[in-house]
Amino acid sequence: MKKTLLTFALIICAVLTGTAQDVVGKWKTIDDETGKPKSTVEIYKQNGKIYGKVIEIVDPTKRDATCVDCPGDAKGKPIIGLVILKDLEKDGDEYSGGTILDPNNGKVYKCLIALESPNKLKVRGYIGFSLMGRSQYWERVK
User: Fold this and answer.
1) Which of 16, 21, 74, 138 could form a disulfide with 121 if both were Cys (CB 3.0 to 4.6 A apart)?
2) Are strands 83-91 and 49-57 parallel, antiparallel or unpaired?
3) Burial category of 101 from C-beta neighbours within 10 Å (exposed 0-12, middle 13-18, buried 19 and up)
4) Phi-psi group of 40: left, alpha or beta (phi > 0 → left; psi -120 to 50 → alpha; rest → beta)
5) Is 108 within 8 Å of 98 (Cβ atoms)?
6) What does each C-alpha distance from 110 to 3, 8, 42, 63, 89 come to in angstroms?
7) Is 49 exposed, middle or buried (0-12, 13-18, 19+ CB in 10 A)?
8) Whole-angstrom Cα distance, residue 48 to residue 24?
9) Span 37-73, pLDDT tens digits
10) pLDDT 10s digit of each residue in the chain, 142 long?
11) Could you give the CA distance from residue 115 to residue 106 in angstroms, rounded to a whole number?
12) Which pLDDT score is estimated for 5?
């Protein structure tokens, strides 16, 4: 009986730990200059890949903003609802091989994301290779 309870407890812990270590969920983006929350991005899985879309903009004066300089079918679309993370695939402890769109300037960068902790996500956009880029840290919405 004790073995059964111990096994069950270990399985429950493994499941809970695995869930907490997933990038899927809602994340607050942080403004580099002010250090304050700027938006909320919902990260989700679709067809085995990771995507992220803007679901909230904190500044009420920017909530109706559109992506003026975005390429392709994103051009002129509202930023709320815009998919900014695309086609990321799991590669060890990080997700890479996809892109991130900066709706402020319409530029698309290669991207990788990785959990720094259960509630802190490193998001790196770069051109060429990952050493030539910039990282942001997003906070999980609780």
Assistant:
1) 138
2) antiparallel
3) buried
4) beta
5) no
6) 48, 42, 19, 26, 12
7) middle
8) 12
9) 999 999 999 999 999 999 999 999 999 999 999 999 9
10) 444 433 333 333 343 444 447 999 999 999 888 999 999 999 999 999 999 999 999 999 999 999 999 999 999 999 999 999 999 999 999 999 999 999 999 999 999 999 999 999 999 999 987 778 999 999 999 8
11) 26
12) 35
62 SS3 class: helix
Tell me, what's the pLDDT at 81? 97
- In this structure, are residues 121 and 138 in contact, taking their beta carbons and an 8 Å threshold? yes
| Maximum Cα interatomic distance, the chain, rounded to a whole number of Å | 64
DSSP category for residue 61: G
Q: How far, in Å, CA of 1 to CA of 61, rounded?
A: 61
Q: Quote the tokens at residue 84.
A: 């900014």
What are the structural domains, with CATH classification, of the chain? 23-140 (2.40.128.520)
CA separation, residue 27 to residues 2, 38, 66 (Å): 40, 11, 21
> Given this model, what pLDDT does residue 99 score?
97
